[in-house]
């Protein structure tokens, strides 16, 4: 009984349930529970603080975290992910952050498909005090990308944030469109620091792993944003996602306001997953 | 998928006269794995496996010449039973003016689904009016307006108004004035732990008394699905839910979880970003998708 500060077989079952309920997935949850069980057998230390320490350590080892490292010259941050995860909102938050750091920032509305997507990004641009490069709705996202890169180079932009349309990763044509955007960036800004950010919704279950793997194939993920971490969902799938892609979680979206963006804190995150 | 895994287990039974407890255990492990991978709620999986285990020890399976296939059949039937035994028609108001409200977490597809519903009703000969009471998300009203124009359905928006309740009441008046028979109300996405936003939701509901309250659920949602559904249900008494983004490869286990734990029926499914991507749901198709 864990309430006596002792772990036993029942608490180990509970542990697996807690981890699965946090969306860690069956494989990670079983792995973590067996690491704990092995340690308990080896050390004979069943005290709660010891066991949770082992658990936290193993989780921390599975999780990769990091920071976006901006470099001199043009930095292109490519916002990608499936529909509705928080790309546009995060673009606005990032623009605000870098603007306040004294960087010259530009937003580009490469989602030319969804109703009012451009309008939405323009509002964020106004809020952040950052210009938004946009074409008309229905324009070619590749053309918007191209123009945004030319404008960024011409104006000496430090950070160009390219907001793209949500796309389900099993849609070949949409993933090909993303690959094309990526090629254009490589061709038009070969010396730029390109940072591809996958935005995941923290409420997502095991499908997040499939999303990450598919996006990594077309756009080399450099970092992951866990958006909507201010809800009930723990985002435990991040363990499996970073294991599968080696991409670090770099940011946490903690709300719908422009300041609700924080550097991802792996220790805090792991602690929230613990019983 | 699961069927082949279960048949593999029982193929090696050839020559054996009956399933052993270990055989059943092995099969249940595969079933549990498949359902958890599909994001079915932990507790729901536990109960489901217990039910199926019991059935698998019954006469029919024991006497069968193909016990593996019997178990597959039991699993499928049980899933369809849970998913499908429901009235999936939308409520219609006896007053002749039906109000449908859409709720859900952020980004699940409420606004897009509102337009899909409007188009469906229009094709059925109804006269819908679309309104957005999302006073929070940037360009939310505009998004709904653009969609409404695409499908040639009237819309009522107040982009500068800060009170969702006010817009909702005005939309009701607008709908009646235009001789519409249905008002579709698109609300802002919200977290169920955001008490202020949940209060807003309750206020809107109290103000316009919706005929049909629909929870919009993203197919890729994980283990929190049941808690979310319960929270919305307790706040606003959900009549049905619509699962979106089923054109992806998320298994959609949340549908089973929500249905099992709340009894709320699935009314429709959304299968794409275009307004036409909207269908009645088929329990057998969703069951085989969840099983993988
Ligand atoms: N609570 C909360 N809501 C968020 C967060 N990030 C985004 N949202 C909300 O999620 C919804 C979708 O956000 P968007 O920025 O439009 O998502 P998107 O990925 O750009 O969507 P598409 O472009 O349609 O694919 C909006 O209602 C946002 O306000 C977050 O960190 N916390
Ligand atoms: N592929 C696919 N995309 C969908 C589906 N339904 C909605 N979407 C997309 O999901 C994203 C979010 O849709 P919205 O309608 O803005 O979602 P919402 O619930 O109104 O979002 P908030 O108002 O911010 O909470 C958009 O990119 C939509 O095009 C669907 O069935 N399939
Ligand atoms: Mg967007
Ligand atoms: Mg909306």
Radius of gyration of chain A equals: 21 Å
pLDDT averaged residue by residue of chain B:
93
- The count of β-strands of chain A is 8
How do the strands line up in the largest sheet of chain B? 3-2-4-1-5-6-7-8
Average pLDDT over all residues of chain A:
96
| Outline of chain B | elongated
String of helices and strands of chain A: HHHEHEHEHEHEHEHEEH
Structural class of the helices, strands and pairings of chain A? alpha/beta
Q: Please tally the helical runs of chain A, counting DSSP H or I stretches of 4 or more residues.
A: 10
Strand residues, percent of chain B = 5-15%
Name the features.
heterodimer, A: 275 residues, alpha/beta, eight-stranded mixed β-sheet, 10 helices, 49% helix, 15% strand, elongated, B: 292 residues, 12 helices, binds guanosine-5'-triphosphate, binds magnesium ion
Describe the structure.
The complex is a heterodimer of chains A (275) and B (292). An 8-stranded mixed β-sheet of chain A has the order 3-2-4-1-5-6-7-8, with helices on both faces. Chain A is elongated. In chain A, α9 links the parallel β6 (223-227) and β7 (249-253). Chain A has helices at residues 9-21, 26-43, 48-62, 87-100, 117-128, 141-155, 172-188, 207-219, 237-245, 266-273; strands spanning 75-80, 105-109, 132-133, 159-163, 193-201, 223-227, 249-253, 261-263. Chain A has 275 residues and is an alpha/beta fold. By secondary structure, chain B is α/β, with parallel strands linked by helices. Chain B contains 12 helices and 8 strands. In chain B, a hairpin with a 7-residue loop joins β7 (266-270) and β8 (278-279). In chain B, α1 (2-11) packs antiparallel against α2, α1 (2-11) runs antiparallel to α5 and α5 packs across α12 (283-291). The model of chain B has no long low-confidence stretch (mean pLDDT 93). The A-B interface holds A 17, 20-23, 25-26, 82-86, 113-116, 119-120, 122-124, 168-171, 201, 203-208, 210, 228, 230-233, 237, 256 and B 33, 36-39, 42, 105-109, 111, 136-140, 142-147, 150, 191-193, 218-224, 227-228, 245, 247-251, 253-254, 273. One guanosine-5'-triphosphate sits between chains B (104, 106-112, 134, 137, 140, 188-189, 244-245, 247, 270-273, 277) and A (83-84, 114, 166, 168).
